[in-house]
Amino acid sequence: MSIYDFTVKTLEGTEKALADYRGKVLLIVNTATGCGFTPQYAELQEIYDEYQKNGLEILDFPCNQFGNQAPGTDEEIHTFCTGRFGITFPQFAKIDVRGENAHPLFQYLARNTEFEGFGMSPMGLMMNGVAKKMDKDFKKNGEVKWNFTKFLIGRDGRIIARFEPTADMKTVKEKVKNACK
User: Fold this and answer.
1) Secondary structure element (H or E) that encloses residue 129, with its range
2) Cut 0.90: pTM above it
3) How far apart are CA 48 and CA 104, in angstroms?
4) H or E segment at 106?
5) Span 123-155, pLDDT tens digits
């Protein structure tokens, strides 16, 4: 099984095969419009602007599982993201990314990566507390812990890296740059 075996639902409600992205570098992100990490949309768009010409696609999957922070319709979320952050990368229909109703794509990503930790910054320490309330053993499994978890996929469809929402976006950008070479 590889990333190319999955299909996802577009904003228009049609199925999109990830195999259509074969040969591209992918950054798959679960997002929310009302999250403290929402400003990362601007940084993601900057990365997209810089590396799309080198084969990068950012695939945005809104998710309302964490603190009810993406409560709008797909259309409302898209309008917010394009209007406030000017995103031009593909955005898909809202999905679940953890638990028994998680989309198979995110089940695959979670099974094939490890939680990278939130770090020791004040935000990281706060996120540790939030994650522990949801799952006391959160450090021992690969489930997505919060909005703006990112998965970097190489041109061959293999997972290169996972970034928790607290990861430095400069590190994300550097890994994307290296993958796009």
Assistant:
1) helix 122-134
2) yes
3) 25
4) helix 104-111
5) 999 999 999 999 999 999 999 999 999 999 999
Q: What is the distance, to the nearest Å, from the Cα of residue 84 to the centroid of all Cα atoms in its chain?
A: 19
Identify the active-site residue in 35, 63, 81, 180: 35
Q: Are 166 and 124 in contact (CB under 8 A)?
A: yes
pLDDT at residue number 167: 98
DSSP string covering 49-107: HHHGGGTEEEEEEE---STT---S-HHHHHHHHHHHH---S-BB-----SSTT--HHHH
Neighbour-count burial of 72, counting CB atoms closer than 10 A to its CB (0-12 exposed, 13-18 middle, 19+ buried) = middle
Q: Chain-wide mean pLDDT for the chain?
A: 97
Rg (Cα) of the chain, in Å, rounded? Answer: 15
Match 């679940």 to its residue by tokens: 96
DSSP state for residue 52 in the 8-state scheme: G
- Look up 63 and say whether it is catalytic: no
